[in-house]
Design goal:
The chain is an alpha+beta fold and 194 residues long. The chain folds into two domains: 2-159, 2-Layer Sandwich (Potassium Channel Kv1.1, Chain A), CATH 3.30.710.10; 164-193, no CATH class. The chain has nine helices and four strands, in the order ββααββααααααα. Strands 2-1-4-3 form a four-stranded mixed β-sheet. β1 and β2 (26-29) form a beta hairpin.
Length: 194
């Protein structure tokens, strides 16, 4: 995933990253997974350069990994879990091997990539689009550009060729305008409704 991935490959397996969500959920990840998020990569670079510091837990034994604690303050545990699922899929090879296997099998790729991406999109869109919005906001917060672009594309695809009322429902917008006020807006901006 862009420039963030280049330095993650050389990271020591003796240090793991402990991500802590806003609601206290803890995720222990390898640096190559967690450092796909810009916010974690910057913390990793800063704290490892200082060699330990207060955010690195001492290992229990010399062979145990050290944990770099990185709080992700604006992201809940369930949303952080979905983001990490995306990172785990793309950590090793950006998912290229999986896409190659699907092409070899002759599977028809969807607009959003491969079968894994289709299932991931269904998981985000299940029930209401609220989870999709939260993952989109959170991916922007943690600076995971590919996931942010993916979720924005899902949102754009979901509202394409929808009526105004369907778009309002999708974005859960409750209008306080009367029918007369709405008609005036439609007349004033008739070009937008053609």
């Amino acid at each position: 995933m862009g420039y963030l991935k280049t330095n993650c490959i050389d990271m020591t397996p003796r240090i793991k990253i402990r991500l802590i969500s806003s609601d206290g959920y803890v995720f222990d990840e390898l640096p190559k997974v967690a450092c796909m998020m810009g916010i974690v990569k910057w913390s990793y670079d800063d704290l490892v350069r200082e060699d330990a510091g207060e955010n690195v837990d001492a290992p229990e034994s010399p062979r145990s990994p050290r944990f770099l604690k990185v709080p992700i303050l604006n992201v809940s545990g369930d949303i952080l879990g979905l983001i990490l699922e995306y990172c785990r899929f793309h950590a090793d090879d950006d998912g290229r091997a999986t896409r190659r296997k699907e092409k070899e099998k002759g599977e028809n790729n969807t607009d959003n990539g491969n079968e894994w991406h289709r299932q991931y999109a269904e998981k985000l869109m299940r029930d209401t689009p609220r989870k999709l919005f939260e993952v989109s906001y959170a991916s922007d917060y943690v600076d995971l550009r590919d996931l942010s672009a993916f979720t924005c594309k899902l949102i754009a695809d979901a509202v394409r060729k929808k009526s105004v009322n369907e778009i309002r429902n999708f974005f859960m917008i409750d209008t306080a305008m009367t029918l007369e006020e709405e008609e005036n807006v439609r007349k004033e901006y008739s070009w937008a409704f053609d």
